[in-house]
């Protein structure tokens, strides 16, 4: 035991030395300055190219109008009628001087058209170069896009066929066991196979427990957490047993909506919907099975109507909120989903941007220690630490997305996505 502790102590000390020795602030500042300079110069170049090319196109448009007006008039009113009298009507012979004059005018018209054609060819070539530059920038953007792995969600490492397409709930353990709700069953998978199924009944031992409201994983408990309307359960991924935790129950007149376990902590947050369609947040300790604190709906905005999902990282809580506003002088209601970021004392740190109107519900999962992945139907957003939209993606309409869990990067800097599909009804590992 002491030798093992000594190894860990040496390793921890080495990591501390490495962290203390990190001196990259100047490099990061320089990189940011270079990026800002590039952005400024690109804006300047783009504006200059746009202005000069616009002026050139305006000039060519005017020249084209003059060319068509002047040269077509000469051809239509002078040259073609005179030549028609000779060639078609055979009523008149033109003198050599007249033929030379006509030839000069035709040659001049032909020359003007060739000059104009070369100008148009140059414009077309410049346009092609601009399109190529756009494609290069798009390629760079795709290479740097965090969500590029989801460009083709049909290309997967593994797929499991499901019985039902209705439930969005999914949870993943640290050792890659996966728990989903499928056709009134809780189904447990590992990366290779379906391990076990536990029937879900809304009544248990004669008492009503309600439908499943959320699934998540607690690395403190080492177990999956199953939240129904009125009860809290755990599932050991290795034993596949469903245990009701009697000490944890919603307050009178409310029911559970979502749960967020704080990583590496014995505490968890619960979102509860009251009979008045309001949302309270409670913080509980798994260690003592006791309520730590309750926050009421006044921590939210007055028009916030629904909390669909809450999740925590090690520093803050992300809450998916549907705001419902009634427009003045109208019965129409404007519904918008957003993700707000709170600290663990439930003080709102950042108000998220409006993501989408409507949809079945918005779900959130940590993307890394500073950002989040939000999902609503086939729309996916990568959100920054302030709830701002960093990247957005939409999945092909031929398929229907329910939810995604993001695994940490592996040694090759690759992320793994666990995807719950509704159409087709599948569990995918990407």
Give the full name of the CATH homologous superfamily of the largest domain. Answer: TolB, C-terminal domain
CATH class of the largest domain equals Mainly Beta
Under CATH, the topology of the largest domain can be stated as Neuraminidase
Order of helices and strands: HHHEEEEEEEEEEEEEEEEEEEEEEEEEE
Structural account:
By secondary structure, this protein is an alpha+beta fold. It has 2 domains: 25-144; 153-429, Neuraminidase, CATH 2.120.10.30. It is 30% helix and 34% strand. It contains 3 helices and 26 strands. It has helices spanning 2-20, 25-87, 96-144; strands spanning 158-161, 170-172, 178-181, 185-189, 194-199, 203-204, 207-208, 212-218, 223-228, 232-235, 242-244, 254-261, 267-274, 279-285, 290-295, 304-312, 317-326, 333-342, 348-350, 363-366, 372-376, 379-383, 389-394, 400-406, 417-423, 426-429. The strands form 7 sheets. Strands 1-26-25-24 form a 4-stranded antiparallel β-sheet, with no helix packed on it. A 4-stranded antiparallel β-sheet has the order 2-3-4-5, with no helix packed on it. A 4-stranded antiparallel β-sheet has the order 8-9-10-11, with no helix packed on it. A hairpin with a 6-residue loop joins strand 17 and strand 18. Helix 2 runs antiparallel to helix 3 (96-144). The longest helix has 63 residues, at 25-87. The mean pLDDT is 85.
């Amino acid at each position: 035991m002491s030798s093992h502790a000594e190894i860990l102590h040496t390793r921890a000390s080495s990591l501390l030395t490495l962290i203390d020795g990190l001196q990259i602030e100047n490099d990061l500042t320089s990189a940011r300055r270079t990026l800002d300079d590039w952005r400024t110069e690109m804006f300047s170049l783009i504006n200059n190219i746009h202005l000069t090319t616009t002026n050139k196109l305006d000039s060519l448009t005017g020249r084209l109008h003059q060319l068509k007006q002047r040269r077509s008039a000469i051809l239509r009113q002078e040259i073609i009628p005179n030549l028609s009298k000779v060639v078609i009507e055979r009523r008149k012979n033109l003198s050599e001087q007249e033929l030379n004059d006509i030839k000069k005018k035709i040659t001049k018209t032909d020359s003007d058209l060739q000059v104009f054609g070369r100008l148009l060819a140059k414009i077309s070539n410049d346009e092609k170069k601009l399109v190529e530059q756009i494609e290069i920038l798009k390629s760079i953007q795709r290479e740097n896009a965090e969500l590029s792995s989801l460009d083709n969600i049909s290309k997967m490492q593994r797929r499991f066929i499901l019985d039902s397409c209705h439930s969005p709930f999914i949870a993943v353990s640290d050792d890659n066991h996966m728990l989903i709700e499928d056709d009134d069953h809780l189904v447990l998978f590992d990366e290779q196979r379906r391990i076990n199924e536990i029937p879900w009944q809304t009544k248990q031992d004669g008492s009503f427990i309600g439908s499943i409201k959320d699934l998540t994983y607690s690395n403190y408990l080492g177990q999956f957490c199953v939240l129904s309307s009125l009860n809290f359960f755990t599932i050991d991924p290795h034993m596949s047993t469903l245990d009701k935790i009697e000490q944890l129950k919603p307050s009178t007149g409310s029911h559970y909506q979502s749960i967020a376990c704080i990583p590496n902590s014995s505490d968890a947050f619960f979102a509860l919907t009251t009979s008045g369609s309001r949302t309270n947040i409670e913080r509980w300790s798994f260690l003592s099975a006791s309520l730590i604190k309750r926050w009421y709906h006044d921590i939210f905005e007055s028009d916030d109507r629904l909390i669909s999902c809450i999740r925590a990282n090690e520093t803050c809580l992300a809450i998916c909120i549907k705001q419902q506003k009634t427009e003045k002088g109208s019965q129409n209601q404007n519904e918008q989903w957003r993700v707000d970021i709170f600290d663990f004392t439930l003080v709102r740190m950042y108000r998220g941007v409006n993501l989408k109107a409507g949809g079945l519900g918005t779900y959130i999962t940590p993307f890394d220690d500073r950002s989040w992945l939000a999902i609503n139907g086939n729309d996916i957003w990568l959100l920054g630490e302030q709830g701002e939209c960093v990247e957005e993606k939409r999945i092909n309409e031929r398929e229907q997305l329910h939810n995604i869990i993001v695994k940490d990067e592996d040694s090759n800097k690759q992320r793994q996505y666990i995807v719950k599909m509704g159409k087709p009804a599948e569990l995918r590992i990407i």
